[in-house]
Design a protein that fits this description.
The complex is a heterodimer. By secondary structure, chain A is of the alpha/beta class. Chain A has 15 helices and 17 strands. In chain A, the strands form 5 sheets. Chain A has an 8-stranded parallel β-sheet. A two-stranded antiparallel ribbon of chain A has the order 1-2. Chain A has a two-stranded antiparallel sheet with strand order 4-17. In chain A, β10, α9 and β11 form a beta-alpha-beta unit. Classes of the chains: A alpha/beta, B alpha/beta. β3 of chain A pairs antiparallel with β12 of chain B, so a sheet runs across the interface.
């Protein structure tokens, strides 16, 4: 038998082994291995609305004006009904049984041809009911985008250029880079399927150590992998219903990510599973033993004693949820010193810490603390707050996160409605559709994740980056608008710097 | 529903209703539609563009200069001289622009206005729109670019004013269309979707479009990113050499978007042989692009121009290359500001479409109807494309350019300049309107 034949599964009793047979068998085995390979993707499928958003526009047609217009055309184009009944809308707003006398505004896309063409009797206005959704940070625009993404599971594509403000606060003030000609990879539009979005959760040693015999002697990686760089966070405010928990559980299992859920809910509903991250108060730290299937359990806030107690009670990784309150840096360092392998950073839902800083700066600060201490790989950083758009995920990762935690987007994926301010986590109030079908909701959430992952691929593809793990903390692949303005407008009269 | 080519009567009725309605709105006979406009193209900016396209004059009482995007061009203004020092408004104020500054024996091209028309492919727009723009370009001794969709036979009538674009999918690129062109444009990227390539949705890839692109009808067509033959500046140089071999007289334009290292890209293109460096900023137009790309990837043009201008100066090659800016350039004021920031001239796209009736509804890619633009602009639908007739489109654009040139001269005279080229890089003539003062 050839020396390497055993490695590819050839048995000598099958007869004499020739080079030809070796080659053929190697190819067959290689094919089998390749066929077993499953390229990760999220199966999306368009679903119906259960609680549709208010339509975008209000279309009003003056009946008298329309009647006069038709009468005039009857005379002008006598007998030519195709001319008389031709209408300016290609979207069907005026194609109901009685045409423009009962317009169907839900079909209106705002081209405005009707109101331009017939300014005397047609008006088109923005629907105030839609404009009233959300709040000053999570706007109706974010909600409408999430709604479309969760409905269709695709990357939203439109004509025309950008319509919004120049730069802006928060994540709007950050641009992502692209690679023009010299690219590190041959990806682009035909290579996106090869871009990896998996991230490791847990701890890797910063270097390997070997003993005198050349055997590994130091610590080894203690981690698991999720397939997307985002997870579902604790439902904020009063949103944590049983239905909500069951859907995020099944969806996170389906797309291979994690769901943070209140430990009591996990226990009550029997949801303990590898994809579930039970969240415990420090006073209940020893209850970690009640979740034998969990790979990761989080404690809410830093307490050294509780952390030790939790760790002793389970083999699961213990993560620590840290709010960006005054002095968070000390707690952060202490938790990492104590051996926490996952730190889950939390701002308010407008993405602000207690000192008013935005999460992109706060995530960066946490990331840089670990870099400066030479132990970034030993800790996984999750982060949440203010992440309500597909572009926020890569921007949060550029700022230093390993994975982003989604909170409000889940509510809006389910076509829930919020009431009042969406800033404080514990004060958020919302309602889900009255009869939320589990499969429908799971598909909506999977669609949202598929859409956001695909949009992440667009960003990574533009940069020529083939693995989202390489994006973490790559500040150099982002551009801050106020810095660019300083460079561009320096010396121009009246420019005070810092985008002022 | 079967869609058929509309009768002459229907074309007459529809175009008159549309055109009369545009005029009624632009002339203030009815109040501004509540749902019109956005931060970059405000209602007044759209209506004032319609006004200029109808009359050839700038309007009174409407802001025809800026949008409300709270940054960039919209926060820049000019520091005009005291009124007593203004020059006379005159046709003698030179607005022309040389496109070949290398003195290398290739086409010596001077355009009468410091802008030309950007690429819009056949498929993304109709032949009627392409021809309206091309015939207007001929009137103004300027150009339009084919975009990446081939060269409809009608365009040969105006080939002296048409730039052939070679982009990453090579759709419709033929030896004869490169030979026909005084300028050949290599498109590496587009500002609205930098690094992502192009995408013509299946619904817009009809029989004629597919034929010109060498494809089959109603199949989505992707332009990849990047050029799969270009992974270095040396490869880029090779590309330009190919074009030169086919058409030795053509001057070469390189269109790139605005990444962090756009200054290095520009210098690399210059040394590879480009005559024109065309920067396309992140807020540029598109027939279809992922929403996430439009705002988030690459930088706005206002921030890229000075970066590239200064770097070219530092390299000592600034006067040997023409720097063209596009992607969010809407008005004559924007053009003047771009030049003051360091560009030589600009490329317009969306402005042309707005001049012909676009309301920026963003359904160019097909929209829910799958038929494309209801105004007949970004569509090849057999019925809708008839809503833009070539004579009318040409006249609208001619009027619009007349008003824009007038306004450009108005700016120059108030700055005491006789020549638009004297404005280049004159940031000392600009002022920034602070956010805090709210001036």
């Amino acid at each position: 038998m050839l020396e390497s034949a055993a490695h590819v599964g050839l048995e000598s009793q099958d007869g004499p082994l020739t080079l030809d047979r070796f080659g053929a068998e190697s190819a067959r085995i290689g094919r089998e291995i390749a066929d077993r390979y499953h390229r990760y993707q999220i199966e999306t499928e368009e679903v119906d609305d259960a609680n549709p958003l208010p339509h975008r526009f209000l279309v009003k047609v003056g009946k008298v004006g329309l009647a006069k217009f038709i009468a005039k055309e009857m005379l002008m184009y006598f007998g030519q009904f195709d001319i008389i009944f031709s209408r300016p809308c290609t979207y069907g707003v005026f194609s109901g049984p009685v045409g423009g006398f009962a317009p169907r505004p839900k079909l209106c896309v705002g081209c405005l041809r009707c109101t331009v063409q017939h300014p005397d009797f047609v008006t088109v206005e923005h629907n105030p009911d839609l404009m009233a959704l959300g709040d000053s940070y999570t706007t109706h625009g974010h909600i409408a985008a999430i709604d479309e993404e969760a409905k269709k599971g695709i990357v939203p594509v439109r004509g025309q250029g950008y319509r919004g403000r120049f730069g802006g606060p928060g994540f709007d003030g950050m641009l992502t880079d692209m690679s023009e000609i010299v690219r590190p990879s041959r990806d682009g539009i035909h290579g996106r399927e090869l871009i990896g979005t998996a991230v490791d959760v847990g701890s890797k040693p910063m270097h390997l150590s070997f003993d005198a015999d050349g055997k590994l002697s130091g610590s080894t990686p203690e981690m698991f992998t999720i397939q997307v760089p985002f997870l579902f966070d604790l439902p904020p405010g009063d949103l944590g219903s049983n239905d909500f928990a069951r859907v995020v559980d099944s969806t996170s299992r389906r797309i291979d990510t994690l769901s943070c859920l209140d430990a009591h809910t996990v226990a009550r509903l029997g949801l303990d599973a590898p994809n579930i991250v039970p969240v415990l108060d420090n006073a209940e730290a020893t209850h970690t033993s009640e979740f034998p299937a969990a790979r990761l359990i989080e404690l809410d806030g830093w307490n050294a004693d509780a952390f030790e107690a939790a760790r002793e009670a389970t083999d699961a990784m213990i993560g620590v949820r840290l709010h960006f309150e005054e002095g968070w840096q000390e707690s952060f360092i202490a938790a990492v010193d104590a051996g926490a392998k996952v730190i889950h950073l939390l701002a308010d839902l407008h993405g602000r810490g207690a000192d008013g800083s935005f999460v992109s700066d706060l995530f960066k600060e946490a990331h840089m603390i670990l870099i400066e201490q030479g132990r970034r790989e030993t800790v996984t950083l999750f982060g949440g707050g203010g992440i309500v758009g597909a572009d926020h995920v890569p921007k949060a990762i550029i700022s230093g996160l390993d994975a982003a935690a989604l909170d409000l987007p889940v509510l809006f994926a389910f076509q829930g409605r919020s009431h009042g301010s969406l800033r404080k986590r514990d004060k958020v109030s919302g309602t889900l559709p009255r009869r939320m079908d589990h499969d429908w909701a799971e598909q909506r959430l999977a669609n949202l994740c598929g859409s956001w992952r695909d949009q992440l691929l667009e960003i990574l593809g533009a940069m020529g980056i083939r693995d989202v793990r390489r994006l973490r903390g790559e500040f150099g692949r982002s551009m801050i608008v106020r810095h660019l303005e300083d460079e561009a407008f320096e010396g121009i009269a009246g420019y005070a710097g810092g985008g002022a | 529903m079967t869609i058929v080519k509309p009768s002459e009567t229907l074309i007459h009725k529809t175009t008159h209703l549309m055109q009369d309605g545009m005029n009624a709105r632009a002339f203030g006979e009815y109040r501004i539609p509540e749902a019109l406009g956005d931060a970059r193209w405000t209602d007044e900016l759209i209506l004032s563009t319609w006004y200029m396209a109808e009359t050839g004059e700038v309007p009174d009482g409407m802001n025809f200069k800026t949008g409300k995007s709270d940054g960039g061009f919209d926060r820049l203004d000019f520091q005009f001289l005291p009124e007593g020092e203004w020059l006379e408004h005159s046709g003698d104020i030179d607005t022309s622009l040389h496109l070949n500054r290398r003195g290398d024996g290739k086409n010596e091209i001077k355009i009468d206005i410091p802008w030309y028309g950007g690429g819009m492919s056949y498929g993304s727009v109709s032949v009627n729109v392409m021809m309206s723009r091309a015939r207007n370009a001929r009137n103004w001794n300027s150009y339009i670019s084919t975009g990446e969709g081939g060269y409809p036979p009608e365009l040969f009538e105006v080939k002296e004013n048409v730039i052939t674009q070679v982009a990453t999918g090579y759709f419709g690129v033929e030896e004869k269309t490169i030979k026909a062109a005084p300028i050949v444009e290599l498109k590496y990227a587009q500002g609205a979707k930098p690094g992502l390539g192009g995408h013509l949705l299946a619904v817009k890839a009809g029989e004629e479009v597919a034929k010109l692109r060498g494809s089959v009808p109603f199949v989505s067509l992707f332009s990849p990113f990047p050029f799969h033959s270009t992974y270095s500046v040396e490869d880029h140089s090779k590309h330009l050499d190919w074009i030169e071999t086919i058409n030795p007289k053509a001057i070469l334009s390189v269109k790139v978007s605005t990444p962090h290292d756009v200054d290095m890209v520009a210098v690399g293109s210059y040394y590879a042989g480009a005559h024109i460096i065309h920067l396309d900023g992140g807020y540029g137009g598109t027939g279809a692009a992922p929403e996430i790309a439009k705002k988030n990837i690459a930088m706005p043009i206002e921030l890229a121009i000075p970066k590239v201008h200064k770097f070219l100066q530092k390299e000592g090659v600034r006067d040997e290359v023409t720097l063209i800016a596009s992607g969010g350039v809407r008005t004559a004021d924007d053009i003047a500001k771009a030049i003051a920031l360091g560009a030589d001239g600009c490329v317009l796209g969306t402005t042309d479409l707005v001049g012909m009736g676009c309301t920026r509804c963003a359904n160019c890619e097909g929209g829910p109807s799958g038929r494309g633009c209801p105004w007949g602009l970004t569509t090849t639908d057999i019925e809708l494309q008839e809503w833009v007739q070539q004579d009318w489109g040409e006249k609208r654009l001619d009027n619009l350019y007349t008003a824009m040139q007038w306004r450009l001269r108005d700016i120059l005279r108030k700055l005491g300049l006789n020549n638009v080229q004297e404005l280049r890089g004159r940031t000392d003539l600009l002022r920034y309107i602070g956010k805090e003062t709210g001036e």
